Input
Amino acid sequence: MAISQGFVEELKYRNRIDDVISSYVNLKRAGSNKVGLCPFHSEKTPSFTVFSNTETFKCFGCGAGGDVITFIMRAENLDYISALEFLAKKSGLEMPGETENKSELVKRSRMHEMNREAARYFNKMLYEPCAEAARAYLAKRKLSSSAVKRFGLGFAPQSFDALRKYMHTKGYRDEELREAFLCGKSERTGSYFDYFRGRLIFPIIDNLGNVVGFGGRATDDETKPKYLNTSDTPVFKKSRNLFALNFARTCCEEYIILCEGYMDVIAVNIAGFANAVATLGTALTSEQARIMAKYTKKVVISYDSDEAGQAAAKRAIPLLEEAGLEVSVLKVKDAKDPDEYIKKFGAEKFRALIEGSRGKFDFLCDGVLKRHDLEVPDEKVKAAREICELIADIYSSVERTVYIAKAAEKLGIEAKSLTSDVERIRHKKYREDESAKMRKIISDTSGYGDRVNREMVGNTKAAKAEEAIIGLIMLKPELFAKIKTGELSLSADDFKTSFGRKVFEAIERQEGRADLGMLGAEFSVEEIARISDMQRKRAELAKNDETVLADSINALKKEKNVAQSGDELEDAMKIILSKKNSSK
Output
């Protein structure tokens, strides 16, 4: 979607970066800048900085950076156009009209309407004779008609084209249905087919009330896979969405209940706990953890009580903690999951279960003790070692002291001995962390492990010159005029790395009036963070004039000439060798 520079400038003028970020982060003045705890990763010492002079932000811990648009993309889990819409609505601006080319916006809107129409169809089918098995399943799970209505449940007939034919009558084409993952296409025959067939349907609704995808559950335990879910589409990323967050976000200030599946969420919800959510057919992701951190400070994990459920809970804990969330884990007794527990014992018992949920340490410690026989000396030593490893990861010395005392009691070992082992492990981890930091510094300097500009390895000098050029132009757009008029000779072909070339070409298309907000349309948030870094680093230097730009251009061309000379020498050697071989 083409967006004018004027619109982006007005949008950013009405949404000053420190004002917008202040509603997400508690910022404090630090000289001319403002600092706070990063909302994108867990930290105890502020490394998140807002730079007023460039209207940008940078986290020196996780590397996130950019302008106010990039921040909203990350914080609200939105793509570029949606972030513009979000800020436009916030500041009372209208999105550009037809003259600005609304094709992308229209496409997204049409996909939302298409999903909503499909949801209506699925819901209608739930009451048809073909859905008898689905209704029987719902009755077995004791789901009331009000629950079905609240979550918009439906049924996909056991047909290869029932949905397609219906959607055709509404004006939707097969390719559109395929892009929305409502249809598939056979590689062998090229024919289209309904993706969801013979399944109970769960619409996935975002915080704006849009139907963005679907989950489909088999109505028996024999059909495999049990669940099918919409794959990623232009309006849906399953790693960045949560089922029922549209309900939970308004009533989860105290805590969110994280369930394992759709049916658990619905059961917990209709029992009076509207603050329940679930992942969408995948393990919990860091993005989902950060989304929850926007709405609450605590997550109660309510996974199945079987081994797989408890293993999933163990994997989820560090992700939630990294997002800055307090974590506790339900211990469900005499039931395999929350749904069964509520049906057996009722909502009040479940509430008591939540209030008595175990903290992270108790949950992990119980898991260790369950795996080892403390009557066997070797097993007891192994259990003590694992528990010491758990305690060593705890930041607070007070918490460590409390947990050491608790572990000592459970293990029947003196607390003094455990304390000694915990401190030894902490010192070892500290040395390893320091070594890792040093390796990272060396790696970053040489370009190894660079995921944004992978060609930096072997082209370090050229890449540094490219970053200086881009940073200068971003900071002082008037310098681009020197390039445009030919006073300084530079073209996209002079760039050695593809990333540097791509950024320069984007700046050229903007006639040198480079703005991070405009670049967001064609670069990822990670790439925008890098471009923002180029600008910020130049802003920190005293001299940023035409002579510095000329020197950087000369440095870049010198590196390119060196590479070309090397290529010519290699070509000459090949010719000489071939002549020698032919004369033999």
Notes: Confidence is low (pLDDT under 50) at residues 565-574. Residues 245-358 form a domain with the Dna Topoisomerase Vi A Subunit; Chain: A, domain 2 fold (CATH 3.40.1360.10).
